[in-house]
Amino acid sequence: MAAKPRSNGAKKRQGTKKVEKFSLNRAADAIYAGKGLRPYFRYRDLGIKRATGGRVSAHIIRAARACAEGTGAHKHKLKLQIVYVLKGEVAFWYDGQGEFVLRPGDCVHMPAGIHHELIRGSSDLEMLEITAPAEFATVDVKRAQPRTAPRRTTVKAGASQCAKAA
Questions:
Q1: C-beta of residue 97 within 8 angstroms of C-beta of residue 158
Q2: Which residues pair with 63 in a beta bridge?
Q3: What is the mean pLDDT for each group of 10 consecutive residues in the chain (166 residues)?
Q4: What is the set of domains in the chain, with CATH numbers?
Q5: Cα(134)–Cα(55) distance, integer angstroms
Q6: Is 23 in contact with 8 (CB distance < 8 Å)?
Q7: CA–CA separation, 165 vs 53, rounded Å?
Q8: Across the beta sheet with 137-140, what order do the strands follow?
Q9: pTM for this predicted structure
Q10: Which residues are registered as beta bridge partners of 11?
Q11: In 3D, which of 66, 166, 150, 158 has the Cα closest to residue 116?
Q12: Distance from C-alpha of 33 to C-alpha of 124, rounded to nearest angstrom
């Protein structure tokens, strides 16, 4: 006999007590709010945090203005961080990797705890960011490497890059 679907769309993950909820977030209903880590960005919550009980977050980050001052070197206390550039251009520095300019279609996976810095971002920048867990601490750190001219190429395959499909 087939299992009956739950009326609220919730699905219990096998072997856990966590409940996942169905989530649909339409672009036509998008709200970009200033509540987030950086004052020069606006954030669109995609509903993933609520749907996963805080295990994962996904949001679109949109520039409210160009960012030329950078974030300063920092790290996040999380397990997963992925950034996929949708529009515009952004320059990042990653400890042990160097500086990279990312453009639409470029995607980077940052290992947990990696020291990094957003150096600058264009006024039309839009990025999809996925993190786990949804809530995490950010800690300022000292930059281990001197700033150099950013590489004008996209992240190369195999260099902490995710597939260009997100």
A1: no
A2: 41
A3: 46 62 94 80 95 96 91 93 98 95 98 94 97 93 66 42 30
A4: 38-140 (2.60.120.10)
A5: 6
A6: no
A7: 25
A8: 98-102, 90-94, 116-121, 74-77, 137-140
A9: 0.76
A10: 20
A11: 150
A12: 16
Give pLDDT, residue 98: 95
Place of tokens 């709200």: 31
Our CA angle for 33, 35, 41, nearest 5°, is: 70
* Residues counted in the chain: 166
Cα–Cα distance, 49 to 59 (Å, whole number): 9
Alpha carbon 138 to chain centroid, angstroms:
13
Give 137's Cβ-side CA count (13 Å radius): 4
CA distance 68 to 42: 16
CA atoms within 13 A on the CB side of 145: 14
C-alpha 154: how far from chain center: 17
Per-residue H/E/C for the chain: CCCCCCCCCCEECCCCCCEECCCCCCHHHCCCECCCCCCCEEEEECCHHHHCCCCCEEEEEEECCCECCCCCCEEEECCEEEEEEEECCEEEEECCCEEEEECCCCEEEECCCCCEEEEEECCCCEEEEEEECCCCEEEECCCCCCCCCCECCCCCCCCCCCCCCC
CB atoms within 10 A of CB 22: 11
